[in-house]
Amino acid sequence: MPSRIPTRATLALAAAAALTLLPTAAQAHVRVVPESTTAGGWTVLTFRVPTESDTASTTSVTVDLPLGTPLAHVATKQVPGWTATVVEADLPEPVDLHGTTLTRAPAHVTWTADPGSEIAPGEFQEFALQVGPLPDAGTALVLPAHQSYSDGTVVDWDDAPVAGGEEPESPAPAFTTTADEEGAPDVAPVAATTSEAHPAAEPDDLGRVLGAAGLGLGIVALVVALVAARRRGSAA
Fold first, then answer.
1. Do residues 186 and 179 lie in contact, with contact meaning Cβ atoms separated by under 8 Å?
2. Are residues 168 and 207 in the same domain?
3. Does residue 179 sit in the same domain as residue 89?
4. Which of the 8 DSSP states describes residue 38?
5. Domain check: are 96 and 84 in the same one?
C-alpha cells in the first residue's frame, strides 16, 4: 500500500517551499518619494536614507538638484539633530519656468548630523524638501545623492535609471513629472523610487513578488493533486 502523506504536513512543506522562492526585500538604497508629481505644482520630496554599513554610521547626505530643469523654490524640514544647508548656483543659461525667468536656482542640499545623531547601522532617517513648481510633464528629475559615513567612506547614488531595464548598481533617486488628471504625458513616467516602509512596492519588486507567489501557488496545487491521487489509490 502506498504511503500517505498527511495533508497538513504536505501543505506546510509546500508553503515553506513557496516562501523560499519569494525575493528578499529590495536593497536599502537612498530613495525619494514625491508627494505629488504634477507638472507646475508644488510637492514634498521625502528622501529615505538607510545605513547599509555594518560598522559605520551615516554622518551626512548631499542631494544634487537639477540645473537644466531647475526648481525655483526649495525649503527644508527640520530634522532633530541634523543641520540642512541649501546652496544655490548660476544656471548655464536662463530658464523660463512657468512664466518666471530663472538665472540662479538651488543646486545642492546637504544634511549634516550633530554628534550623537548619526544614522547607526541598521537604522534609517528621512529628510524632506518642499519644492516647486515642478517642470513640464514627462520631465525626468534625477537627484543624485552622496552618503558619507563615519569611517570616511562616501557612497554615490548617482546612476541614472534605465527605461525598461534592471535597476543599476547605485541608482540615483529619481521620478518623472506627470500631467494633471485632464491630460497625460507623452512619455511614460519613471516610477518614483520607494522603499520597504511604504506600502507601494516598486514595479520590478512587485512583479517578482507576484511571479514567485504564483509559482508558490502552483507548487501547492501540485502537492494537493498528488495527495488526492494517493488517497484514491489507497481507497482502491
1. no
2. no
3. yes
4. B
5. yes
CB 81 within 8 A of CB 114: yes
Extract the residue ranges of the chain whose pLDDT is less than 50.
Answer: 1-5, 9-26, 183-206, 209-210
Supply φ then ψ for residue 115, to 5 degrees: -55, 130
- What are the tens digits of pLDDT across the range 153-199? 999 999 988 777 678 889 999 999 999 865 444 443 444 443 333 33
Element holding 17 (H helix, E strand): helix 7-21
CA distance 214 to 10: 18
Based on the fold, state whether residues 66 and 182 are members of the same structural domain.
yes
* Region of residue 133 (left: phi > 0; alpha: psi -120 to 50; beta: else): beta
Q: Whole-angstrom Cα distance, residue 31 to residue 147? A: 12
CATH code for the domain in which residue 188 is found: 2.60.40.2230
List the grid coordinates of 133.
513648481
- Asked if the bond preceding 144 is cis, omega within 30° of 0, the reply is no
Q: Is 124 helix (H, G, I), strand (E, B) or coil?
A: strand
3-state DSSP call for residue 78?
coil
Under the phi-then-psi rule, with left for phi > 0, alpha for psi from -120 to 50, and beta for the rest, what region is 112? beta
Please name the residues in contact with 4: beta carbons below 8 A apart, sequence gap of 6 or more.
227, 230, 231, 234
Domain holding 236, by residue range, is 1-26+202-236
> Can you tell me which residue has the cell 527640520?
78
